[in-house]
Amino acid sequence: MENLAKTYNPKEFEDRLYNDWNNKGYFKADVNENKEPFTIMMPPPNVTGNLHMGHALNSTIQDILTRWKRMDGYEALWLPGTDHASISTESKVVTRIKEQGHSKEDLGREGFLEKAWEWTEEYGGNIKNQLRKLGVSCDWSKERFTLDEGLSDAVEEVFIRLYEKGLIYRGDRIINWCPSCATAISDAEVEHQESQGKLWHVKYPVKGEDKFIEIATTRPETMLGDVAVAVNPNDERYEDLVGKTLILPLVGREIPIIKDEYVEMEFGTGAVKITPAHDPNDFEIGLRHNLENLKILDDNAKINSNGGKYEGLERYEARKQIVSDLEDKDYLVKIKDHDHNVGHCERCDTIVEPIISKQWFVEMKPLAEPAIEALKNGKFKFIPERFEKIYLNWLENIRDWCISRQLWWGHRLPVYYCKDCGEVIVSKKRPEKCTKCNSENLIQDEDTLDTWFSSALWPFSTLGWPQNTKELEYFYPTDVLVTGYDIIFFWIVRMVFSGVEQMGEVPFENVFITGLVRDSEGRKMSKSLGNGIDPLEIIDEYGADALRFSLITGNTPGNDMRFYVERVESSRNFANKLWNASRFVIMNLGEEFHFTGIDNENLKVEDKWIISRLNSAIKEIDDNLNKFELGLAAQKIYDFTWNEYCDWYIEMVKPRLYGEDEADKITVKNVLIHVLGDINKLLHPFMPFVTEEIYSYINESNESIMVSNWPENDDKYNFVEAEEQIDFIMDAIKSIRNIRAEMNVIPSKKAKAIFVTQNYNKRKILENNELFFTTLASASSVEIKENKDGISDDAMSAVVEGAEIFLPLEELVDFDKEIERLEKEKSRLENEIKRVNGKLSNKGFVEKAPESIVNQEREKKQKYEGMLDKVVERLNNIIDKKD
Hints:
Blueprint (H helix, E strand, L loop, with lengths): L13 H10 L13 E5 L11 H19 L3 E5 L1 E2 L3 H14 L4 H20 L2 H9 L9 E2 L3 H16 L3 E11 L4 E3 L4 E16 L6 E6 L10 E4 L13 E3 L6 E6 L11 E4 L5 H10 L25 H14 L3 E14 L7 E10 L2 H12 L4 E3 L4 H9 L4 E2 L1 E2 L9 E4 L5 E3 L15 E3 L3 E2 L1 H5 L2 H4 L8 H6 L2 E7 L3 H16 L4 E7 L2 E2 L16 H8 L1 H9 L8 E2 L2 H23 L17 H22 L3 H28 L4 H22 L4 H11 L21 H23 L8 E6 L3 H9 L1 H7 L2 E7 L10 E5 L2 E5 L1 H4 L2 H26 L2 H6 L2 H32 L1
Parallel strand pairs: 1-2, 3-4, 9-11, 15-23, 22-23, 24-25, 26-27
Antiparallel strand pairs: 5-6, 5-14, 7-8, 7-13, 9-12, 10-11, 14-16, 17-21, 18-19, 18-20, 26-29, 28-29
């Protein structure tokens, strides 16, 4: 029988196997009425992005679930795709155009979009090729892109439906404006960061009186847009001032003093400047009091013409100048340090500016309520449950969603304006004429939709919606969404309310939340820290299987994990262990061997034990996978494979493999192949490449392991008594090994093993399995006694359940050699202690060396002294025994 290559080298087969799987259509999933569907939608990465460790973890989890369900008899669809990433992609294309000496405006919209498509085609394949290197088994024939014609149709359909229901509107609202990206962004795209700022206290004089109101602000430049000062109606301090006017410092404009319940009397001076065009709370106050919206910043965050002499200054330059002028004119009372949260654009980290703008919004409350009920009524769940709080908190406090973006790359709003009468027309196709005045003078809105608007439709738009396709009917709703906790409100919330609104059903049953992959010190991987690790470099050095397994072992849903290269090395060692064990098994099968199944009648106790342990492992691993405990499942496969199969069972049956009983050899070979086959199947979702390569050598049907049947737990393979017997034998062998290790006995040195037991069952186990002790515990012979008569007092001993074990000391130790060895060790330790004492008695060293170094030397001294005590004790004991 042909054997595996002598050394495990994943580069020799990983690419070949992936291409083979793909070419044979193993990744494809189609409507199949004879099978139950299982569906995962790949969270679409940015089309021009590159694979990072977060992608690698997320994709590995999805692939494990998909491969498992495919083998378990489901029609498993993992649908891949990419996102057009409007802000990110447009920013990169704009940069390239600038490098070529042009601007976005020079090219015009159509010219710019041509460049954007060129960029997408140039870099759009990177992440897909990188995912293939990882081994993902998604259905590439169904790959989608958020700017596909079909998905674009879905986006326009949803926009029109929501508009016709009155849930999409255009209006002046405070939005988050990113001056760098030059577009509005949603609340979810704002990252709030703790910032050390200032609180400027400013005097606002009362008109015609020698009085003033003290106002505190963190953004003094916005005072140029102040239109009122508000106080609480119950604040007696300002009772006589309400209704009067103030003179706005530096500007000279008169502004009223108004009362509003929003103002907190206990906070600051109890008086608040009102700037409706630049603060969301002030905007609401402005609506209640019919105040003017005076906008003082342009789209580049520079002071506009409403700012008087400060016009043209960048916002922070204006702040410096205004504070200086306030101080010069004696309006500035004091400046206090003030820590507060400041919103930053999550794309470019620029501080966002709350600003009034005419934008398109989705009214969220009618959509949020059904999405809240869906979770509370158990229509879907989060794994782990604690993330439900984030989801509910976001929806219960949600504001209307600003969906328009001042960008060209993306889904352009299906909105047209009549230039003659101002009519607004929402339509998929460009109208020939105005529906109100019949004018043909129509223009389309320049803005595009927020990227998340299209991503929110991903679970059903990718299956053909708004057409009622067979795929949509069969594969929706999906089973699992695997995604990071950082986009619960970006994406999960929006998919749920979109699915409920458009499909009448939640888009998934389970949301598996992953944590972040951090570096070995627990820091977030980032370009600025230079601590990012390229998954492709890891794959190139260790193989995809090693990376995948290292990301899963020890991983729990929702928790961040640290990435250690040492863990990847350990995973590669595991693959190598399986490879070598498989080579050994195949090498000993012989040319004529054919698997004939498991015959319980011919099994010996060790055969029954490994089959029973495998049966238990299958059940436990199934339970773990069904609970999404992938890390625990991986660990159980590892433990069973390495410890029980490789280190115990193979070693136990070697004498039988090399023996003369041909019938028994066949039994052993059948068991070895049966268990090895199921090990590879259980491990396949986690380490697909090495398991496929091994399986192709041991499976006589030539089918891919990908489409083989998932192992099943079977009661007929539960051998409880055999497990108890082998557990007893293993405990005894480990006890003997421990004694030998403590005595530093070399493996080749044989010694009698004496068992003392009055338990009939234990005696029979020992009598029937003496061979295990001679082959696995270096026993020269095995003696079984009912009492300790004749056993030397100096015999080394251990206790296992139902028996005591004794090893005669004189058979374990060559006294003269052991005394010589211990004398050398004693001398070495005394020299080390002398060296350390010399350092610690040196006053210069103790005073000048770093405290940590001094402490290290003290710890060494303590360690060496402890070791010396043990060596002296052991030496004295050996000398006494010899005498």
